[in-house]
Amino acid sequence: MKNxxxxxxxYDVVKKIPKGKVASYGQVAFLxxxxxxxxxxxxxxxxxxxxxxxxxxxxxxxxxxxxxAFAFGGENxxxxxxxxxxxxxxxxxxxxxxxxxxxDI
Length: 105
Known about the structure:
The protein has a single domain, classed as Winged helix-like DNA-binding domain superfamily/Winged helix DNA-binding domain (Arc Repressor Mutant, subunit A). By secondary structure, the chain is mainly α.
């Protein structure tokens, strides 16, 4: 069995973020195997090969900001997708205390 690539590990984590929750880049990096991969997470999500199954819109900064470089329609689209899942914002940031995914991976 071949080892998974870094991107595959990241995508596996992102697929597990439930609808109505978000995770930070650092959280995804940690869960994918290396807490220093936060920037790699951003790059991987920008190159997302399957946005319909890899919900990259659920990944935000640690303080709840959406990506100004969201590759699939810009930050307004990321906000629209999250709000459509019931995620609320305060002062332009996701309310992390309420919507951050607490996972058991």
